[in-house]
Amino acid sequence: MAKEISLTGDRPTGPLHIGHLFGSLLSRKELESEYESYVMVADVQALTDNFDHPEKVRENVYEVVADNIAIGLDPKKTTFFIQSQIPQIAELTVFYSNLVTINTLKRNPTVKAEIAEKKDLFGKEGESVTYGFLGYPISQAADITIVRSNIVPVGSDQLPMIEQTREIIERFHRIYPTKTNVFPLPEAKLSDTPKIIGLDGSAKMSKSLNNAIYIKDTPEEIAEKIRTAKTDSGSAIGPINPNESIPLWNLIRIYAAIHKQKPTDAINDLQGMKYSSFKNKLAIDLNNYLAPIRDKRSTLKQAYLKEVLEYGLKKVIVKAEETMSLVRKAMNIDY
Ligand code: TRP
Fold first, then answer.
1. pTM score, two decimals?
2. 154: Cβ below 6 Å to ligand 1?
3. Residues 30-46: what's their mean pLDDT?
């Protein structure tokens, strides 16, 4: 029987951070042998809030592919490709646009939070938000379905996008019925660490907020970032209420992810430890964890990454056209 299909994507706006690593990259690794696997470099999506800085997007295309390969994905098993090189995704986005209301887009919690965060670009009250940015979940539905994915390994911030994708597909099948459905209904695959917040305690770890640890960070950068990470007014680890001490709990989740433990077990092991000793230990352990990844990353040449993406493009373009001919037929526009 044919393998089921996994697809996910990364926006090339900077190197990937440990939120990506523990939220999605490690799940990709788990899935890659069992599934026909795709990782898309989401340059079109990255342009929705960087349209005036295309050079920033361009610079980071190879960075995100390097991060993925460095953590252990095998380009012979996982197909990497660039979103803008598959015009069928843009075509499918246009057809899907008819199936989503503007009100639904405005209510998407992840998009709402991003608009609120990007006041310079989209205005204090989001009054200058663009059609392209508000609509990126539609384009993401097209990313996911262009290869007819069954599973999407993501962090929890992406759940509204998967839900939106499912609604679009259900609507598509209702309005354009065919004997066998064109698409499977994709499921999100969440890891045990589906969300890591910023080191400053803000809701999101992100490059733009300058509160992230990158997969490629040096030992010195890691140590300094953890040393200055927010905790709370206490001084030693006691029983923690995760809802009250959110930044400290976040560090413990990172610790637990490295040691493949449940956060509640990690906290038992760490009882009584001074915050400063815990931070030292976390910095050392995280560095040990990332060191082999960093080493591998430094051996990846741009020419090789380019080859990986060229190989991926050839494979995906065939699959994408196959999907579009099914879509055009279902929509009765297969002239
Ligand atoms: N929105 C995702 C992010 O911000 C990136 C992405 C684009 C994606 N297309 C996708 C993720 C398709 C999963 C599936 O990280």
1. 0.96
2. yes
3. 98
